[in-house]
Amino acid sequence: xxxxxxxxxxxxxxxxxxxxxxxxxxxxxxxxxxxxxxxxxxxxxxxxxxxxxxxxxxxxxxxxxxxxxxxxxxxxxxxxxxxxxxxxxxxxxxxxxxxxxxxxxxxxxxxxxxxxxxxxxxxxxxxxxxxxxxxxxxxxxxxxxxxxxxxxxxxxxxxxxxxxxxxxxxxxxxxxxxxxxxxxxxxxxxxxxxxxxxxxxxxxxxxxxxxxxxxxxxxxxxxxxxxxxxxxxxxxxxxxxxxxxxxxxxxxxxxxxxxxxxxxxxxxxxxxxxxxxxxxxxxxxxxxxxxxxxxxxxxxxxxxxxxxxxxxxxxxxxxxxxxxxxxxxxxxxxxxxxxxxxxxxxxxxxxxxxxxxxxxxxxxxxxxxxxxxxxxxxxxxxxxxxxxxxxxxxxxxxxxxxxxxxxxxxxxxxxxxxxxxxxxxxxxxxxxxxxx
Amino acid sequence: xxxxxxxxxxxxxxxxxxxxxxxxxxxxxxxxxxxxxxxxxxxxxxxxxxxxxxxxxxxxxxxxxxxxxxxxxxxxxxxxxxxxxxxxxxxxxxxxxxxxxxxxxxxxxxxxxxxxxxxxxxxxxxxxxxxxxxxxxxxxxxxxxxxxxxxxxxxxxxxxxxxxxxxxxxxxxxxxxxxxxxxxxxxxxxxxxxxxxxxxxxxxxxxxxxxxxxxxxxxxxxxxxxxxxxxxxxxxxxxxxxxxxxxxxxxxxxxxxxxxxxxxxxxxxxxxxxxxxxxxxxxxxxxxxxxxxxxxxxxxxxxxxxxxxxxxxxxxxxxxxxxxxxxxxxxxxxxxxxxxxxxxxxxxxxxxxxxxxxxxxxxxxxxxxxxxxxxxxxxxxxxxxxxxxxxxxxxxxxxxxxxxxxxxxxxxxxxxxxxxxxxxxxxxxxxxxxxxxxxxxxxxxxx
Lengths: 436, 447
What we know:
The structure holds 2 protein chains of 2 kinds.
Chain A: H1 2-41, H2 43-46, H3 51-76, H4 81-105, H5 111-116, H6 119-131, H7 136-161, H8 164-224, H9 229-234, E1 241-253, H10 256-259, H11 265-285, E2 289-294, E3 297-303, H12 315-346, E4 354-369, E5 374-379, H13 381-396, E6 400-403, H14 404-407, E7 414-418, E8 428-431
Parallel strand pairs in A: 4-6
Antiparallel strand pairs in A: 1-3, 1-4, 2-3, 4-5, 6-8, 7-8
Helix pairs in contact in A: 1-3, 1-6, 1-8, 3-4, 4-6, 4-7, 6-7, 6-8, 7-8, 11-12
Chain B: H1 2-54, H2 61-90, H3 95-121, H4 123-128, H5 133-141, H6 148-173, H7 179-186, H8 191-237, H9 239-247, E1 257-268, H10 271-277, H11 280-300, E2 303-309, E3 312-317, H12 329-353, E4 361-376, E5 381-386, H13 388-402, E6 408-411, H14 412-417, H15 421-426, E7 431-434, E8 441-446
Parallel strand pairs in B: 4-6
Antiparallel strand pairs in B: 1-3, 1-4, 2-3, 4-5, 6-8, 7-8
Helix pairs in contact in B: 1-2, 1-8, 2-3, 3-5, 3-6, 5-6, 5-8, 6-8, 8-9, 11-12
């Protein structure tokens, strides 16, 4: 699965980069073609423009037009990219060699010029441009094609067609020359192929690095929550904390250790994970941020987590907004737990019973810890008191209990429990979760 | 202020990335030296048989001189590259200077070879022959230097040497052999076009190497980010646990394991009163100092901090150790507890003088089997230790809130496993206490 993703990613990336560079390749190619073609046109006023020159110019024109047509086809349909690359390569490499051939055949230039000319340099430029497609296979086949064509051309011209008068002088000049020329051409090709291979490997390293980065981000995000990932990465050097209003949700499984006494570690963790998965999705769905799993307990915060800037909501809006979120989440958690328990009951497994405490107030949020070991923590009285509220759910025997701070002024379905300041400094309410 | 800090940070990142690119370039430069060396050695191999085939029959001294010069050039080149390779591989920092010298040296060596070949083969063959392609090969080497400037510099240098040498050959031999004029100056295949193409090849390859540099840069940026996240990750879940998590991240299982060790809970008992009385920001910065010192002590004694819960620290001793190696974990845990208490006292005396809050800490240590593993769901996970032993330690810690004198409480198992008699003698007589959530009374030792 991962491998497949990577392959796909790699293909896409290459296509992206090539499509960017292909316009550059085309432009350079056109300049070279024009550069090759223009000298022939100077022959027209001199009256030495012959059939061979015409053919050469036609070939160059064909190269120009074909590369444009191929580019426009690829632009419309990316499927033809590979075919057009291959065609472009064959046209580009063969075109230049063919030009030299026709120039010789129609005797518009001396055979000496054919051998001694700079035209092979144009082939090297074309090869370099082909290497810009970042495909080793393409570059290697282009290089092999180029060297083979040159070898055929040189040997054929040198051995078969050379005019008898020139032959003597030529053999002397060229027997070593042809081999040397091919040697240099192949050296240049090998360098370009090596370079393509190098670039290709660089691309592979990018894909590796990107996959590693994504996976690292994902894993890290799992451990500090994706909500605060960016904040944490930005403020990794120093500890920083801000105070924000929020509602703390603290939930705990009752008698978890005794409950799990006869279970193996694997079973315990599997069961716990099933429970956490449900609860976490509910909390996150309702806009909460899970700060921590503490053993079997969940510490979540409903509040403004954009720590870099203050939200524009008024104090009152915040209160009702976050309280509603938290209350809704708590109720849904209780309903979801009933579902889970129903399943477990059918499988004759032990059921979970939880207590949820909600308390609102100012929370200190930020990086706490030492240079070597940090934690994104939610601190303060509010958090401690939320734990106390949760603890009181056991005493009173309710599933969800909330303090006055969360209830605010309007209390719709919340039932008053106690106002004893010895038990808790604020009036407490419970949420009726019985299904009617 | 903030933007300035950000700027400095981004500059540091830039430096870091540049460094990585330089390492890449350094590797390439070493590779280029190896290529050049092999070309020179190859040349010696090719020309030695030619020399022995032709030179003895040669009537002219020029040929012998030419070949000897060729060998001398090759020898000088090989020595230069051997010394350069050794030097560069030891001093990567000299790369920038070395690169410029290297490019120049390549061009010089190749033009020396060109000149020597002129002595051997004569002007006509050289100017009309394929030897000029040598310059292109040398120029192409510079692609690997990943810099537009290097490539163009190499191209300009090559064309300059080629031009000068060609003009010199024409000047020397032009009168004897008029064909040279035809081949090199007048006809369409003259040196001018060759030089034009040298420059074109240089520019095209320069663009190629610049693009390659961009790719390498992207690799460097991604790697930097990954290592940055990895570093931060280590800060948030301790490096040992991070490595454990990263190892098991692709595995299907949660990576749960049973382990045996000592759990230490340390909390600030008066934290909520402190928060009430003092400015939260000041308390947080105090807390940071506190955590830093505690972390030092714990890691010094071989413990791992599993998590901070508010003001509470949960540390584990003996995580992932084999049964044979963990006989001293209780000593380590109790020793850390003692040191933590001592350290807090000394910090408190300092804070008291400066009118800061003082922390009243309590520590509980227990020993036993627990489960370690990644708990949570797809979107949010936590590395936790679960088990009765964790609860006991936490309960012991809360016991210290009630008692005035005892700041460190340990279970009987911990006490029995202590090996250091000095530590053992510091403990008071044991007493039986009832712990919350435990039906039976538990034997507890206090310091």
